[in-house]
């Protein structure tokens, strides 16, 4: 039998307690030791000076207290686009920290299902993605990877209305009173998750490449020698190496990728290491598209670009039986947060989504198209040519055939412009 523990040990302080500072002489005070993960989550961004809630201020570039005006520097550094990238291995995946690193709440939207992370003190009641106020709050479960880098907000919420108004005013094919919609829009600043990938793609391609040659042949019909173009096909092979840096892949499913793409570029020189302080007073969304799914999508895109690079090596426009064997190496991934303002604006009982790049102020979104204006413009483009050709046809007997030809040409040009116009209007109105 092993020696029984000393009586002191049984009455001793449990291991999970540590000695803390005592205000009384001769009395030792022990308190429960902060658990590593709790200490990590304990940051709640209360102002140490007055106890009010602080928030990250884009203008100051640091956490400030709106109550007493105190400014608190964040413990991060600017790393730029050369930020260390995590290697794409299981090892680093398992050791990557999870959660936001501060106390936050999750808002789950009962209408669209989106989960948004908010500061615990924020009395948020609306979903930034669909505008619904049927949201349920719950304690955040820190199971997602913690982002390693982010670009802080540089644009303030107050600037959003001006940016939106300028954007709504742009172009002529929209309703004239659309600008008013900017004043009704509620802008929510939110950090969205993005994956970026680095890889070097080495491709070996093989294809039949055709070269044109003109040859003489005897035409039986006209019993004369004529020339014709023929294509000689030969197998060719080549190597192509394409390096990819910062291949950006969206990790949210709540905003159309075409809108997010229009917000690019982000200046990755301004990347800083993640600090939960940047999220103080702001919303954030953890990634909805996981690493593997995003990597698969990024690989497809990189493969397509490598294919394009291989085609660029082939000077001939005649290519058939093309195949590409692509090898990926030097792969790395990062999880970033990028700043975005989201607003849903109403126009004639319809809702449209508007997004603003929180770093550059670039705006993207959907606009209702004033189709009456568009069709009037199309008519103005097409009718003169048609009318001229019509008159030309009527007067054809009196030798005005040229009028028909000129009218026809004007019609073709007008119609071509009209087609482009209608296509553009359809893209702009895509909801
Ligand atoms: Zn304060
Ligand atoms: Zn929603």
Number of helices: 9
Helix content: 25-40%
User: Biggest sheet: strands, sense, closure?
Assistant: 9 strands, mixed
The whole-number mean of residue pLDDT values reads: 83
Using DSSP, what is the number of strands?
Answer: 17
Radius of gyration (CA) equals 32 Å
Element-level helix/strand string? HEEHEEEEHEEEEHHEEHEEHEEEHH
Percent of residues in β-strands: 25-35%
Small-molecule binders here are:
zinc ion
Overall structural domain count: 2
Low-confidence stretches: 1-11, 34-42
N-end to C-end Cα span = 77 Å
Tell me, briefly, the overall form.
flat
Structural class, by secondary structure, is alpha+beta
Write a structural description.
A hairpin with a 5-residue loop joins strand 7 and strand 8. Strands 6, 10, 11, 12, 13, 14, 15, 16 and 17 form a nine-stranded mixed beta sheet that branches. A three-stranded antiparallel beta sheet has the order 3-4-5, with no helix packed on it. It has a three-stranded antiparallel beta sheet with strand order 8-7-9, with no helix packed on it. Helices cover 26% and strands 32% of the residues. Helix 8 packs antiparallel against helix 9 (401-428). It is flat and about 125 Å long. The chain has two domains: 80-200 and 239-363, no CATH class; 371-428. The longest helix is centred in the C-terminal third of the chain and has 28 residues, at 401-428. With 431 residues, it is of the alpha+beta class. It starts with 6 loop residues before the first helix and ends with a helix. Mean pLDDT is 83; it is low at 1-11 and 34-42. One zinc ion binds at residues 109, 111-112, 114, 127, 129-130, 132. One zinc ion is lined by residues 109, 111-112, 114, 127, 129-130, 132.
């Amino acid at each position: 039998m092993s020696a029984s523990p000393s009586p002191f040990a049984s009455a001793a302080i449990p291991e999970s307690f540590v000695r803390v500072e005592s205000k009384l002489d001769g009395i030792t005070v022990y308190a429960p030791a902060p658990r590593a993960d709790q200490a990590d989550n304990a940051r709640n961004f209360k102002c140490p000076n007055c106890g009010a809630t602080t928030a990250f201020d884009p203008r100051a570039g640091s956490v400030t207290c709106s109550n007493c005006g105190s400014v608190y520097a964040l413990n991060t550094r600017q790393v730029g686009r050369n930020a260390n990238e995590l290697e794409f291995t299981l090892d680093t995946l398992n050791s990557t920290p999870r959660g936001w690193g501060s106390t936050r709440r999750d808002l789950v939207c009962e209408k669209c299902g989106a989960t948004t992370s908010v500061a615990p003190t924020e009395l948020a009641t609306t979903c930034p993605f669909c505008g619904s106020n049927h949201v349920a709050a719950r304690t955040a479960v820190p199971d997602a990877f913690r982002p390693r880098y982010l670009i802080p907000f540089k644009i303030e919420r107050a600037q959003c209305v001006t940016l939106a108004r300028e954007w709504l005013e742009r172009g002529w094919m929209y309703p004239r009173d659309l600008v008013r919609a900017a004043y009704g829009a509620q802008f929510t600043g939110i950090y969205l998750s993005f994956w970026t990938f680095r890889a070097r793609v080495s491709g070996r391609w093989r294809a039949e490449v055709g070269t044109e040659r003109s040859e003489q042949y005897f035409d039986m019909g006209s019993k004369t020698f004529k020339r014709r173009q023929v294509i000689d096909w030969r197998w060719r092979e080549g190597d192509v190496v394409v390096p990819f840096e910062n291949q950006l892949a969206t990790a949210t499913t709540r905003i159309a990728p075409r809108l997010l793409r229009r917000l690019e570029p982000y200046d990755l020189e301004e990347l800083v290491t993640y600090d939960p302080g940047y999220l103080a007073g702001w919303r954030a969304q953890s990634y909805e598209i996981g690493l593997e799914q995003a990597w698969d999508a990024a690989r497809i895109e990189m493969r397509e670009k490598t294919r394009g690079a291989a085609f660029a090596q082939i000077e001939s426009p005649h290519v058939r039986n093309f195949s590409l064997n692509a090898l990926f190496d030097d792969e790395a991934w990062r999880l970033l947060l990028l700043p975005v303002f989201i607003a849903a604006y109403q126009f004639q009982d319809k809702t449209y989504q508007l997004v603003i790049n929180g770093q550059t102020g670039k705006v993207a979104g959907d606009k209702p198209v004033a189709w009456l204006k568009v069709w009037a413009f199309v008519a103005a483009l097409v009718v003169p040519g048609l009318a001229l050709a019509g008159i030309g046809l009527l007067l054809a007997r009196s030798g005005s055939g040229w009028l028909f030809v000129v009218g026809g040409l004007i019609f073709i040009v007008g119609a071509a412009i009209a087609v482009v116009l209608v296509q553009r209007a359809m893209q702009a109105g895509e909801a």
